[in-house]
Write a structure and sequence with these properties.
The structure is a single chain. By secondary structure, this protein is mostly helical. It has one domain (3-195). It has helices at 9-24, 29-35, 39-67, 79-107, 115-124, 131-139, 145-170, 174-195; strands at 3-4, 7-8. The chain has a two-stranded antiparallel ribbon with strand order 1-2. Strand 1 and strand 2 form a beta hairpin. The protein is globular and about 50 Å long. 30% of the residues are buried.
Amino acid sequence: MQAVGNISIKGAAMNYVGHMLRVLKLDPGVFRVLAATQLPMRYCMINVTLTGLIYGMASVHFAAFVLGRQDGAALSFNPIMLLLLGVSLAFIMHGGLALFVWVFCRGVGGNPQFMPVYLFIGTAAIALWPLAPAVSALQSGVSGPGLTFYSAVAAFYAAAVIFVAVRAASGLSLVKMWLAAAATVVYVGCFLYLWL
């Protein structure tokens, strides 16, 4: 078995799978375990990158649908650029969300450090994997009640996973966490409404 330092690749993969299953089961204890290690940085980079790649691959798939409606657009289509754009967007959205959440959590007495919020949201980004293709489909103009229902369920679940991660990072009580979450949703919702 190939080893890096004292940790085997198989052992690291098993640790990752075990930790991610706990994250997806909404177990706040996993974040206390991870906080004492360097793993949140690695998990953040892995999960946000894969979220972007999933979004990018879905965008490549749905690009044919969009480009089919435009004359001559297929000539400039570059799937690699869409994949790279997906990863870039994932990191930009992750950073923006972490900043907004951190500001509102800190405003109600949460942890003043930014990095725990940033890293734990990135670790919780695994819950966005099922949502990423649905977002790409909706952006490309695909619609239907099944897709809308799936997107709503996937978004609600991802929000629940991120809520647990942020609460673990900020150290807030449940009531204060709900206040911070509500303020974040209202602010980001208004911002997106004005932007879009």
